[in-house]
Amino acid sequence: MLAGLSLAALLVAGCAKVGKAPAARPPGVKAAGDIARGSNVFQRAGCSSCHSTGSDTLVCPGLKGVMAWDTTLPNGKPRTDDNVKAWIRSGGVGRTGGTMPSNPGLTDRDLADLVAYLKTLK
Ligand code: HEC
Predict the structure, then answer these.
(1) Are the beta carbons of 38 and 117 closer than 8 angstroms?
(2) pLDDT tens per residue, range 43-76
(3) Ligand 1 centroid – CA 60 distance (Å)
(4) How many angstroms separate the Cα of 92 from the Cα of each of 29, 33, 68, 95, 122?
(5) In this predicted model, which residue has the larger pLDDT, 122 or 9?
(6) How buried is residue 114: exposed, middle or buried, by Cβ count under 10 Å (0-12/13-18/19+)?
(7) Cβ 99 under 6 angstroms from ligand 1
(8) According to the model, what pLDDT value does residue 32 have?
(9) What is the pLDDT of residue 17?
(10) pLDDT tens digits, residue range 2-49?
């Protein structure tokens, strides 16, 4: 199952709009990402030098609830897991004019774990 999911992540890594709904997952079954590892990636990749995990703005907006915000991403794409992964990998110019750097070194697994972690920021 993990292999299938990372294959799916690979396919959309090019930032293409893919209208495929994520597979439903029974409650209690581990999601695609590993939250503890994602938290680690968040520190290691330097996300925390710009983003808090609360609602306070450091250099950039805090990421509390970011996976559920009722807006599109700064690049105008819908807030799906895959689009958030693509945004994190590519970076880009934000709404407030700041620029998020790209993270080409993050693997698909890193991104899946990061997104799992971001979902816990509520
Ligand atoms: C150099 C500062 C910087 C670093 C480091 C950084 N970001 Fe960002 N990030 C930004 C800026 C600037 C924006 C755009 C904010 C805006 O819209 O004004 C942004 C936006 C985002 C968004 C989208 C927020 C939204 O509006 O939907 C996410 C998700 C995000 N960053 C996650 C991360 C993650 C995960 C990392 C670590 C891999 C990271 N960022 C590292 C500066 C940074």
Answers:
(1) yes
(2) 999 999 999 999 988 778 899 999 999 999 999 9
(3) 7
(4) 33, 24, 20, 10, 24
(5) 122
(6) buried
(7) yes
(8) 66
(9) 36
(10) 544 444 444 333 333 344 445 555 454 455 689 999 999 999 999 999
**Index of the ligand 1 atom closest to the CA of residue 93:** 14
Which two structure tokens, joined as six digits, stand for 111? 């991104």
Contact between 93 and 86 under an 8 Å Cβ cutoff? The reply is: no
- Tell me the domains of the chain and their CATH numbers: 2-9+34-118 (1.10.760.10)
Backbone angles phi, psi at 99, to 5 degrees: -115, 130
Predicted local confidence at residue 59, as pLDDT? 77
Through-space distance between the first and last CA atoms of the chain, rounded to whole angstroms:
27
- The Cα-based distances of 116 to 44, 49, 94, 107 in angstroms read 16, 20, 22, 14
Ligand 1: does its nearest atom lie under 6 Å from the Cβ of 49?
A: yes
Give the total residue count for the chain: 122
| Extended beta strands in the chain, E state | 92-93, 99-100
Residue owning tokens 């700064």: 74
> Is 86 close to ligand 1, i.e. is its CB under 6 Å away?
no
